[in-house]
Amino acid sequence: MHEKERHRIILSAVQEKPVVTVQEMVDLTDSSEATIRRDIAALHVQKRLRRVRGGAEAISPPQFIGLAGRPFSVNETLNAAQKRAIAREAVNLCKDGEPIIINGGTTTFQMVHFLTGRRMPIFTNSFPIAEHLLKHSKNTVMLSGGTIYREQNIILSPFDNDVTRNFYARRMFMGAQGLGPLGLMEGDPLLIQAEQKLIDQADELVVLVDSSKFRMRSSLILCGLSRIATVITDDGIEDREAKMLETAGVALIVARKPSSDKEESSLQA
């Protein structure tokens, strides 16, 4: 990852919580500890953050604590071609008239480009997804209520009596921070709470993850592999990871990246 990109991630992270540790920055940027310490030192000299023991903090502490994880704007740039191919395969599972849930995320967001010609009820907790569908499609869109988390572009509610309980979906589409033998993993307790409510409203859970997510872990488990009907990923998935899904009875779809812009346009049409 380029230095400028690491600095952007680090500065976003320190605005989301009081103190960010070196290890957290290592995980966010996939960089070495030595690299992160150099980045912190450089940003400290530039007076863009304050270096503290074991990490860094913002010059002006955040007034509102956000969710754990990378901001939407950063995640959006990572593995973009793979995410678009995965999203295309996800929309291929949809049928006009069938209600679906699309959980907020940068991979699920890519589904909007392939939903423009569809007609179905769609429930989402994502502002960008709702906005794009309202502007560029005739789908019926329902948006969840709750607190808006700007960095992740997502709306979450901790309450049980929100509108989520009134929507039924044939399928729910979602991404994740990681996917392993124990199941689907996320990085924030509030995400877990909100997403579990959404999962309960759908017959099938379809997980959209690029192959890097099979090598990522978190301390929080959202659900076991037994709850997942289908995983859609790219051709970077390893044999042992595919075997893990097969053993758990999870269907696997491997998305192929278009070889050219012309092919991409024809697939989208």
TrEMBL record:
Annotated organism of origin: Mesorhizobium dulcispinae
MF term (GO), any: DNA binding
Annotated ranges, domain HTH deoR-type: 3-58
InterPro entries: Carb_Metab_HTH_regulators, DeoR-like_C, DeoR_HTH, NagB/RpiA_transferase-like, Tscrpt_reg_HTH_DeoR_CS, WH-like_DNA-bd_sf, WH_DNA-bd_sf
Keyword set, alphabetical order: DNA-binding, Transcription, Transcription regulation
Gene3D superfamilies (alphabetical): 3.40.50.1360, Winged helix-like DNA-binding domain superfamily/Winged helix DNA-binding domain
Protein name: DeoR/GlpR family DNA-binding transcription regulator
